[in-house]
Design brief:
Layout lengths: L1 H12 L11 E11 L6 E8 L6 E7 L9 E9 L11 E5 L9 E3 L6 E4 L10 E6 L2
Antiparallel strand pairs: 1-2, 1-4, 2-3, 3-8, 4-7, 5-6, 5-8, 6-7
Length: 136
């Protein structure tokens, strides 16, 4: 499975989105994650929508250990066009891509095209593939 995930990451990583396409994405909210104690590849995440909706919890599995500031990883969630957001819709796999969004940004593969854009000044280095699962 690891070899398949790495091959997939390499394939998707070679794709790019034209820089002007990123202008069509709308910021939805913040996804803040912390490395789970005793499991360097597991992250506990909280999504806070900019609309003020109640926070949602996600569990994330990273292909590689998260190497970030103090064990925290921070993204801004972007949605394509006016797609909006439904509870739990961030769940899915994200891979590194060149979307013109800077280091540490991940492209949603199977969830409607969400993008996890690394926060300004945060590289979220070490994460190339991550799978988010909604916590119920």
């Amino acid at each position: 499975m690891r070899q398949i995930a790495l091959a997939l990451a390499a394939l998707v990583g070679s794709l790019s989105i034209p820089a002007n396409a990123t202008e069509k994405f709308q910021p939805l909210g913040d996804l803040n994650c912390a490395v789970a104690k005793g499991a360097e590849n597991a992250l506990l995440c909280e999504f806070r929508a900019f609309t003020g909706a109640p926070a949602e919890l996600y569990f994330a599995l990273a292909e590689q250990p998260a190497m970030s500031d103090a064990g925290k990883v921070e993204w801004i969630v972007l949605a394509p066009g006016s797609a909006g957001y439904r509870k739990g819709s961030l769940a899915g796999e994200y891979v590194t891509g060149t979307a013109g969004l800077g280091d540490g940004s991940l492209l949603g593969k199977d969830n409607g095209g969400y993008i996890l854009q690394a926060r300004q000044g945060k590289k979220n280095s070490g994460i190339a593939v991550v799978e988010l699962r909604a916590v119920k």
